[in-house]
Amino acid sequence: MLSITGTEAMFADIGHFGRLPIQLALTFFVYPILIISYLGQGAYLIEHPEDVRNPFFLSIPGGSNSGIFWVVFVLATLSTIIASQALILGVFSILSQLIKLDCFPTFRILHVSKHCRGKVYIPTINWILMIGVCCTTAGFKTSNNVTSAYGLGIAFDLIVTSTLVSICMVYVYNWNIIIPVCFVLIFVPLEAVLVISNLKKIMHGAWFPIMMASLFMIFFSFWRWARSKAVEQNFNTRTRISDLYPSFRKVPENKTVDLSHKPEDESWMDLGGEVLEYGIELPKVLNSNHNKLDVRSKFGSTTLQRHKGVGIMYCESSIHILQSPNTVPQIYRKLVSSFASIPSVFIFCSIRILPIPDVPNSERVLIGSMKIPGHYRCIIRFGFMEEILINSDLNNTILSAIPDVQALIKSDETIPGINKVDDIPILHIFENNAIRSHTYSEEQFKTKNPFFLAARYIRRVLINQIYSPLSSITEYNDKLVSIVDEDNETEKKLLIGEVIRI
């Protein structure tokens, strides 16, 4: 089992570089060296069966005080460090995929190679692993006590891996059904024997991997469920533009707009047809018409006030914005209905990470128009090696592509201090929602069933005390925008949100 897990660790470490490095390493280095080492230990045990307790070190020529012994001791220590490094890389790789699947909090992920996307480093998880290893070592005290836990954990790992590989053969690689069936019949029974034989070690420490696997599985499932509920709530609470601005309910009669034709009016700017993003066509015809709009605010119907400047609202889900040409996020409705006043140019901005190291500056920003005058959709694209940071240069790139901003600079009105793009006042708006559990206080949800009451109590504790704080801590929010000066940061950043019940 140690030999198999050592090979698996090498796959986890070298697998980032592709198939050829694995084949070269195992065929010409690892396999011959391991065979010679194990055959040598076996030959030594035939002559000295009493040294079965530690054949590796006892078989070294010269005994425990020779120079060769200390060389091998240093190499063995280094190999332990390498094995732990393979484990750490495996954890980083798995957790980065879990984060993308919304099954784990969005900890910061650092990519350490431009050529190998899978080589990642997660600083927070590295510290958590260190604390966990120290606590586990202190709990088991000796390496012999770890053996039982290690054996059962590896046996489970082998049978889970074989199961997943067989599933990939059928659904991913589309191989003939005979191949996965033969694979399962050969490997799974052997691994099942290992699992069954290690079950007797549960009382001697093997309970630890079972407990940890159960806890992680429960946490991953809970986090995925809570995230899906939060995303579903955000999606369902979107506001129709016609509900916020009643004038959009009026359908103009006998009027056809041809987006392929550029009108003579210079208030329209054609930026090159349409751009396909997320499988959705993003219109690139930008309209700078500024008709007055009536808005339904919390204080009654009133005229929307537009002030000279730019507001950029950073939205969590890009695809929901693009798929909804007739809706706006709930956070925008809250802002407009509460104040009935927004900047003259309003941009819904989303961040997307592409599977390439770097994104050329010419392809970084995509901008499309909305039905509401002066409103735009924007997607900022980053490569996985780039730092997700919106600085002044990127802001200028966005603003330079919008005709309303250029009109703001060239306006006949006297606007003190606005002579170029850098002088335009910008307000960065971020979502800062508080996630809470449903209280089930309505009459229709009242019950005396103790099981329902206990389930609702546990649900409330998990969401309010675990999911909500972790989600709040790991959100990027205003960290996306770099503003060094503290006073400017206070003036240029606005965090607005509401209570989301899931």
TrEMBL record:
It is a multi-pass membrane protein. Residues 321-450 form the K+ potassium transporter C-terminal domain. Its main location: membrane. GO terms for molecular function: potassium ion transmembrane transporter activity. Keywords: Ion transport, Membrane, Potassium, Potassium transport, Transmembrane, Transmembrane helix, Transport. One of its GO terms (cellular component) is membrane. The chain crosses the membrane at residues 20-46, 67-95, 120-140, 152-172, 178-199, 206-226. InterPro entries: K+_transporter (IPR003855), K_trans_C (IPR053952), K_trans_N (IPR053951). The keyword Metal-binding does not apply. Residues 1-245 form the K+ potassium transporter integral membrane domain. The keyword Transmembrane applies. It is found in: Membrane. It comes from the Eukaryota. This is High affinity potassium transporter.
